[in-house]
Amino acid sequence: MKKSLLLIVLLIAAAASAFAQQPPSDLSEARRDKYISEIRQYKHECIARELDLTKEQQREFFPVYDEMEDQIMKLSNETRELERKTDANPDASEAELEAAAIAIYSQRLKEGQIEMAFYEKFSKILNNRQILRLKNTERKFTQRLMKHHRNARKDASARDASSKRQK
């Protein structure tokens, strides 16, 4: 569950940092969507390889898996939005603050419920070993993505420092 949330946050952060220097426009939104789509495709490739999925399993599994991830992302976005709105409202009542806090702290429970519902669907497509390895594969993917993002930021910082010295 933590991995899913971390992945979602990481994807959003990576997309935001990649496009932070561009003016907001429909083009930026299209690029952001393309970037997220590319990450999803890369994740599919990693999962397929690590779990040794057949072509048939891939055709059946990834639409179901993407549906689960979309539901978790929607939940995460709704929770963050509730948190932002409530925290930014200086006139929020104690009841509103409590409701927002409960929503935030129960998010993982809700993610777990979503994952358990999809476990039933996964078990019809994947064997038990593949299901067991799925969580570890997701962790590995997240670690690779974080490492790539860290390296990209280091490279960007080095380029910025180099260009400042040249001026």
Approximate helicity band: over 70%
Residue ranges: pLDDT <50 for 5 or more in a row?
5-24
Order of helices and strands: HHHHHH
Shape designation: flat
Summed up, the domain count is 1
Our count of helices gives 6
Rounded to the nearest angstrom, the radius of gyration is 19 Å
The termini sit apart by 47 Å
Fraction of residues in β-strands: under 5%
- Average pLDDT across residues? 84
Structural class from helices and strands?
A: mainly alpha
Q: Report the major sheet.
A: none
| Number of β-strand runs | 0
Descriptive report:
The protein has 167 residues and is an all-alpha fold. It is 87% helix and 0% strand. Helix 2 crosses helix 6, helix 3 runs antiparallel to helix 4 and helix 3 runs antiparallel to helix 5. The longest helix is centred in the C-terminal third of the chain and has 39 residues. It is flat and about 50 Å long.
Task: Summarize the SSE layout with pairings.
Layout lengths: L1 H18 L6 H26 L3 H34 L5 H12 L1 H16 L5 H39 L1
What attributes characterize this protein structure?
mainly alpha
Describe what is shown at a glance:
The chain has six helices and no strands. The chain is mainly α and 167 residues long. It has one domain.
